[in-house]
Each structure stands twice: as C-alpha cells, then as structure tokens.
From TrEMBL:
It is found in: Membrane. One of its GO terms (cellular component) is membrane. GO terms for molecular function: protein C-terminal S-isoprenylcysteine carboxyl O-methyltransferase activity. Signal peptide: none annotated. PANTHER family: PROTEIN-S ISOPRENYLCYSTEINE O-METHYLTRANSFERASE, SLR1182 PROTEIN. The chain crosses the membrane at residues 20-39, 85-106, 144-172. Coiled coil: none annotated. Keywords: Membrane, Methyltransferase, Transferase, Transmembrane, Transmembrane helix. This is Isoprenylcysteine carboxylmethyltransferase family protein. GO terms for biological process: methylation.
Amino acid sequence: MSFDFSKLLSVAWGGWTTTWPTELLALIWLAFLASWVGASFWQGRTKKQVMTLESQRYRLPILVGGILYTPWIAEVMGWKPLWVLGNTGITIAAVLSVAGIAFAWWGRLHLGKFWSNTITHKEDHHVIDTGPYGIVRHPIYTGLIFGMLVTGIAIGAVTTILGAILISLGMWQKGRMEEVFLSKELGEDAYGAYCRRVPMIIPFLSPR
C-alpha cells in the first residue's frame, strides 16, 4: 500500500495558513522567519555564553509553544476557532503584528553585532541604552510577544493562543536569565543601573 503524500501536505499546509484572511497572518510570519534566519549570520564573535543545559529553562516553553502555534495542530485535533474576526479584524491584527515585528527588527538592527540567538557575552560588549533599548530592555522580545499574542487572539484557536502565551513566557524567562548573566559579565554598576532605569518588556511600567 503506497503512502498518500497529498494527505500529509494537506495537513502541513492546512488550518489557518490556507484560509483567507488568516492566511495573511501566516505570510507575515513566514516572511519574518525567513528574514530573521537570513540575518543570523550577522553577529559578533562570542566571548562567553550560558551553558546549553541551563538554556532549557527558556528553550522548552518556546519549543512547546512554537509547536502549538503552528496551524496544523488545531487542524489535526479538529479544534475550531473560539471566534471569527472577519476581514476587518484580521487586517487590523495584521497591521499590529507587523508593528510588533518592526519594533523587534528595530531592536535587532540597533543591537548590531551584539545580537545572538543565545545568551552570550560578545567581544567588546557594552550596555546599549539608546533607541528602542531606551524604551525597554528587551525590545526584540517586546515586539515578538506583542505580535504573537495579537496573531494568536486573531486566529482564535485555543492551541494558537496557548502557544503564544508559552512563547511569551519563554522569552520572559530568557530575558531574566540574560539580565543575571549580563549583570555579572558587564558589571552591576553598568547593567544593573540600566535595569533600574528602563522597563524590562512592557514600556512605561516601573523598571524591574
């Protein structure tokens, strides 16, 4: 008996990625992933980084959240959206998601060669507190969390919403670990003072 690849493809490309207008949100995030991965080669040389075992504290919720966030999970489980926003609602969500992604890209470009996918101390590393880093300490996480939560709510599936929440918690945990690491590496007087001056992820809140 031959395996029917068409069924596999229909599941892989099913769900909200193939239904307009939610397909627009899928295209936005696919474009983001392609550009983000493509730019991953632009980073400085690593001097020190957090051990892999320790990093599982934030990697695991992000991984599980990412799996739940994918459109085919709800499709396989047969779960329907809790609500339907319609063209206007999805369009607004798309604009807000792009705004979040743009804020994350601003943070990455402003960070320049000091950016890394892991928690690292780059050569010549120093505290950056200008641009988006003068608004929040982790603008990349701020933008991505905002965009993913907006998309999750717009899709309306339990799995997508839960996935967005888990990814957000993973990024928050990673941010906390980064701050402990950088406070030791860059000095409490430098990085600690920055943390006491600028909010962590949500703008305009009290620092810490």
